[in-house]
Backbone:
């Protein structure tokens, strides 16, 4: 298992970095759209749509919704202040605050949504749609002036989340004694949680020093801590829905890593929260 995970990671990481820096905006949007459709396919199972046909329709409808939103944007108005992009990012903040309440009150909160596939499907859309627009908003940041600046921002958020996850795992293994959310994810500990935050702060400092991000250190640190916290919440939220669905992995598309959602669950929260804070709240231009 560990060997297959390492091999897959060694293959995927260079591919992801190449896609960030080399794909043009249209190619990046299509690639992100495909990833979101695969995530929707897997979320269909979490929502209670167990047949292959039902899950295909969930993926197709998600793809059609994102495509319609994308291709009806006015020409040259793909910036974050366009209502449907900004609206999706603000919706992400609302959804993840609600998800925090659901996780903290689980399993009592499950009585609110357990029996409704449509409500769980809505939760999936609130997870996937803002993630899509957060990815595009960051990638297209000042694209006309510098084709790589947005790629650096996205790479930063990804390394931040991966670092937080790795730090949490390491600190949890070495020092973990107190459970973070035992009813949702018994393996996570408070020691791992704070270890992940410490790792994120270190990454924020290093990236802020060496990468061409051009943002005030205090702003970067605040957005980074919020994104790191959101990444933990994204992981816990998917774990909650998987526990309700009675499954361990969301899928089996990535050898040794489970499904697409298992790999991007933290990013689905961290990316739109980071983009919203950076571009809308602090108005970095």
Residues:
């Amino acid at each position: 298992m560990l060997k297959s995970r390492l091999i897959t990671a060694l293959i995927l990481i260079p591919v992801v970095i190449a896609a960030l820096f080399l794909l043009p905006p249209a190619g990046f949007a299509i690639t992100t759209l495909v990833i979101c459709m695969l995530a929707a396919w897997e979320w269909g199972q979490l929502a209670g749509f167990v047949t292959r046909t039902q899950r295909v329709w969930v993926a197709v409808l998600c793809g059609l919704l994102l495509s319609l939103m994308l291709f009806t944007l006015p020409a040259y108005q793909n910036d974050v202040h366009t209502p449907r992009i900004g609206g999706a990012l603000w919706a992400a903040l609302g959804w993840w605050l609600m998800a925090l309440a659901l996780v903290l009150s689980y399993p009592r909160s499950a009585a609110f949504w357990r029996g409704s596939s449509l409500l769980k499907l809505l939760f999936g859309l609130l997870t996937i749609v803002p993630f899509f627009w957060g990815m595009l908003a960051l990638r297209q940041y000042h694209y006309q002036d510098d084709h790589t600046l947005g790629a650096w921002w996205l790479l930063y958020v990804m390394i931040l989340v991966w670092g937080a996850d790795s730090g949490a795992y390491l600190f949890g293994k070495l020092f973990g004694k107190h459970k973070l959310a035992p009813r949702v994810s018994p393996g996570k500990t408070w020691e791992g949680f704070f270890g992940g935050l410490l790792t994120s702060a270190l990454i924020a400092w290093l990236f802020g020093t060496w990468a061409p991000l051009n943002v005030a250190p205090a702003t970067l640190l605040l957005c980074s801590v919020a994104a790191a916290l959101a990444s933990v919440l994204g992981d816990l939220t998917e774990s909650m829905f998987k526990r309700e669905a009675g499954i361990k992995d969301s899928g089996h598309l990535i050898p040794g890593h489970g499904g697409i959602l298992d790999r991007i669950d933290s990013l689905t929260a961290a990316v739109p929260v980071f983009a919203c804070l950076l571009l809308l709240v602090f108005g970095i231009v």
In short: The chain has a mean pLDDT of 87. The beta strands are 179-181, 185-189. The chain is about 75% helix and 5% strand. The longest helix spans residues 217-245.
